[in-house]
Amino acid sequence: MNLTLQIWRQKNADAKGAMETYKVENISPDSSFLEMLDILNDQLINEGKEPVAFDHDCREGICGMCSLQINGEPHGPGRAITTCQLHMRKFKDGDTIYIEPFRAKAFPVIKDLVVDRSAFDRIQHAGGYISVNTSGNTQDANAIPVEKEKADKAFDAATCIGCGACVAACKNASAMLFTSAKVSQFALLPQGRIEATERVLNMVKQMDLEGFGNCTNTGACEIECPKGISLENIARMNREYLKASVK
Amino acid sequence: MASLDSKTPQGALADKWTNYKNNIRLVNPANKRKIDVIIVGTGLAGGSAAATLAELGYNVKAFCYQDSPRRAHSIAAQGGINAAKNYQGDGDSVYRLFYDTIKGGDYRSREANVYRLAEVSANIIDQCVAQGVPFARDYGGLLDNRSFGGVLVSRTFYAKGQTGQQLLLGAYSAMNRQIAKGKITMYNRHEMLDVVLVNGKARGIIARNLITGEIERHSAHAVVIASGGYGNVFFLSTNAMGSNATAAWKIHKRGAYFANPCYTQIHPTCIPVHGDQQSKLTLMSESLRNDGRIWVPKKLEDAKAVREGKLKPTDIAEEDRDYYLERRYPSFGNLVPRDVASRAAKERCDAGFGIINNSTNEGVFLDFSSAIERYGKEQAHIQGVHNPSREKILQLGEEVVASKYGNLFDMYQQITDDNPYKTPMKIYPAVHYTMGGIWVDYNLMTTVPGLYAIGEANFSDHGANRLGASALMQGLADGYFVLPYTIGDYLADDIRTGPIPTNTPEFDAAEKHVTDRISQLINNNGKHSVDYFHKKLGHIMWNKVGMARNAQGLSEAIHEIAELREQFWKEVRVPGVPNEFNQELEKAGRVADFLELGELFARDALERNESCGGHFREEYRTEEGEARRDDEHFTYVAAWEYTGKPSEAILHKEDLKFDNVELKTRSYK
Amino acid sequence: MSGIIKSSIARKVSMALSALFLLIFLLQHFLINFSSVLSADMFNELSHFMGTNPLIQFVMQPILIFGVVFHFVMGFILEVRNKSARNVKYVKYNGNANSSWMSRNMIYSGIVILAFLGLHFYDFWFPEIAHKYVHALPEDPNRYFGELVVKFRDPVRVGLYCLAFVFLALHLLHGFSSAFQSVGFNNKYTPAVQKIGKAYAILIPLGFIFIALFHYFNSL
Q: What's the CA gap between B612 and B626, in Å, rounded?
């Protein structure tokens, strides 16, 4: 396949960026999208130019490091996958592909396609945990039975990889899906109920401080989430928040 | 030469850890506040250690090269975590987990460490559940288990195919609590580039801020390396792209011995290589072997026809399929340990039965059709469907298989464009885990005082081969339950030391060393990219130091790697400047280290004239082609001391004594 | 407490609650208007009641006005904040791939509805208030029907009226179920809520359009 790439280039956080055009040739449809970018970068290095910076690590859709807005969608046109799981067979020979960083005020660009998602970490610091010390004499795991349906829902919420696609997809750059996934996971488990009030208040407060937008229920986050985290979690967080506010 | 002292406590095996804990020195809470600990790496081992040490009161500085500790590659572990809970009542016990691990490791691990690991395994599950890790549960609300390779009990706890993710997020959440309290200072997008020794003790590190390129000095009273394994020395592996051996290799160069580098686990079920442009390999969890049957065609012409796309695997009759694991190992069948399964696949492919159309034809089938049919019939029975049609059975069966392995099947389909519900998966072994690593004693301390190595970065618990679902167990055991005790015993001496200054000649020298090397890479202006050399190194490693090794190949590899390294330093091109975000520079430093480590790896493999676990020497095998161990001469840990050139490293031995198990030839027949 | 009111969730819940209130009002408004199609007397009777009952005039009407103003003001505040949450725009943004046009453009459908409300106030509410409270004219319980039909003689006004209700339909197509989601209602009844929402969003505006056209064509 031969492709034209429109890629956002920006030297550093303070520099002004712009789209630039590149061509790549003889790309195998079996290559992954990031392997295609590897090929572009090898080409650029051999031409004595600077390669395109982009985040990636596990390349199997679980670490959440890769990002990229591809043709106007986070993680590209596929569903329930990350950019690293996107394969070139999704594109056609001769296509022009637009590649941009995830855009949000809370995700400033570091370089080219690399953004700073530490806002997500700070939301987790605010309450994304259960306060239990490591002692070696915690009660036996089976002493806390959990209804299977709730355990499964908690798991589904817990599969969030923190990639930021929800923010990137949302027209408001809202981080509600991300925040609600963690709030939900713990709200559904008996272990997590004890701190539920403080957790939801603190995490939402931090989320707002980071400058994410408001949720307007467009549902774009759920569609673009590589792990299919459900909007149900946002509704649950709204309930939890209301409950906590009147307490 | 005297055997290396493992500092294993005296006493009966089952009492060692308890006695040890009862007799170590403790640091009082007020003094812990005066002590800093650096932890490099935030995977299961590093993350859990950081959280626990901070809970205890130490000031922790944690470093990771990713943008968040949550991204460490532990997250990619799929199948599960072992623990001797015996919830299934199938005869499991601490001793049995200990025994299985020792045997699975082909009798090349330290008894006392493995026993301790088995002993704390149950605590890990309790701890994780208390943290809110959503393990799979049955309808009674209790925890579910599955079985893994090389054992006869169900002791593996899991969270679908994302157990590593859930456990890592558990450790990450524990870290977050301490970060919020200010007890952990997190240095994301930082890479450790050297360790600083003051008066022979580890007292700090030099790290590069990967965003600004700034070289930073960080001091502490102890340094813990939890930076994972070195599988990426093979270029293609199931490790993350950024997984590297730099931290481990730097401490090796500063005096920490490197143990058993040749013990590498080649995981039998990975998606095969598709072409030259491939950047990494993807694992398909071992749990798939619970229900999948591995086979190749019985007839060479069928294998050829499959490769050429003229014959579909589903059209090959049952009697023309060779379920070679079931044939060779009737008692364990498809659930033989990883090393055995991998070698068996290679044996079939070398004999010409491989089914993949790539340059090496290396691939075999992993087939779920029998499981789908079996589950379908079972479900039909449960649902009271009488005389179900074949379609109905398949539909019901596929639903069961989807509920167990859905995400893995989806992942497979994304990558290969094949539907594994309808046609068998194509798989082949790939580099996955390194049992070797930094040598540590019973305290998890390296040969440098105050310098610790935990998790995959150390060599300690898996011997020559790791059992499935044991890596997560070891990482968390080290971080949550072992290191927090052992490090206290060492730090008890440091309560009066006070803060370690960073404006000392030791830090100056280490920083200069780091900056010189970076300038050398940047100013080299060669003609090849870093990946060019990494791929070449991977090629040598896979062909000559891979699944089957021989003396000649290994000697050649040692020379070829040394030559490649020389070429690298002459011809590598690293674009950009040092004081900015520069991913090529990061890669260059890591590959430079792999180019040294690979040579030591081959040397270790050459030295070990036996076959054991993941190390298979073609010269040492039985008439049936199985691995032949040499207990008389090689029941030791090979710990290498750096002297300036990897191939001239000095070998130190730690003799392994087995007081509680009898050394047997491992048989899974 | 003030912190909670400032939070993004409190904002969106208040938006949803005002919306739910307006949904009920709209239904009520529709039913009364629809009576004008059935019988002039019934319409006069209902309008007279609404126009003179003190509870409705002095309690419900101010609440309604507050609800409307609040919904618009909060809508604009959220829009401004949401716009600023993405300070650099995408060069290419494929919103259609993951969300409906309606959900992404509530502000525009809302602005059209606001403009229409201006017209509506000019047509009905201001004359009504002037009639009752400024000039304090005597109440004629049979005046309402006549005042209604006279407005629907102008084809331009009827056209604008219909257009505004198309935008109201678009607004409601997202807004109805969205309000439920915002207050945390997402469970096994959600698919039913979505269906009811769709029916409401299409039928009510269609009904208003029908009423307008009915009187227009009757006046010809």
A: 10
Task: Tell whether the torsion through CA atoms of C145, C148, C154 and C156 is positive or negative.
Answer: negative
Three-class HEC string of B571-597: HECCCCCCCCCCHHHHHHHHHHHHHHH
Q: How many domains does chain B have?
A: 3
A148 belongs to a structural domain: yes
Q: What is the pLDDT of residues A120-148, one digit of tens each?
A: 999 999 999 999 999 888 999 999 999 99
CATH code, domain carrying C210: 1.20.1300
| Same domain, residue pair A154 and A200 | yes
Q: Is residue A97 part of a domain?
A: yes
pLDDT of C154-187, one tens digit each? 999 999 999 999 999 999 999 999 999 999 999 9
Q: Domain check: are B565 and B623 in the same one?
A: yes
Per-position pLDDT tens, chain C of length 220: 344 468 999 999 999 999 999 999 999 999 999 999 999 999 999 999 999 999 999 999 999 999 999 999 999 999 999 999 999 999 999 999 999 999 999 999 999 999 999 999 998 889 888 988 888 888 888 999 999 999 999 999 999 999 999 999 999 999 999 999 999 999 999 999 999 999 999 999 999 999 999 999 998 8
Contact B614, B435 (CB under 8 A): yes
- The DSSP 8-state label assigned to residue B359 in this structure reads T
Give the residue on A whose Cα is nearest the Cα of C97. Answer: A73
Separation in Å, CA of A32 to nearest CA in chain C: 21
The reply to whether B338 belongs to the active site is yes
Tell me: the pLDDT tens digits for B464-478? 999 999 999 999 999
CA distance A140 to chain C (A): 33
Secondary structure (DSSP) of B273-333 = P--TT-----B--GGGGGT-EEEEESSHHHHHHHHTTSS-GGGS-GGGEE-HHHHH-TTTG
Q: Is A touching C (3+ C-beta pairs, cut-off 8 A)?
A: yes
Q: Which domain holds residue B411?
A: 269-430
The two three-digit tokens of residue C205, written as one number: 């505006």
Active-site residue (options: B155, B321, B328, B338): B338
* Single-letter amino acid code for the residue at B65: Y
Question: Which chain B residues are closer than 8 Å to A11 by Cβ?
Answer: 580
Between CA A42 and CA A46, with CA A44 as vertex, the angle to 5 degrees is: 70
Asked if residue B97 is part of any domain, the answer here is: no
Alpha-carbon distance of C79 to C75, in angstroms, equals 6
Whether B485 is in a domain gets the answer: yes
Same-domain pairing of B487 and B516: no
Contact between B240 and A145 using a beta-carbon 8 Å cutoff:
no
- Global confidence as pTM: 0.96
Q: Judging by DSSP bridges, how do beta strands B59-63 and B184-187 pair with one another?
A: parallel
Q: For residue C99, what is the nearest residue in chain A, using CA coordinates?
A: A220
ipTM over 0.90: yes
**DSSP characters for C117-138?**
HHHHIIIIIHHHHIIIIIS-PP
| Inside any domain, residue B654 | no
Supply the range of the domain harboring residue A84: 3-111
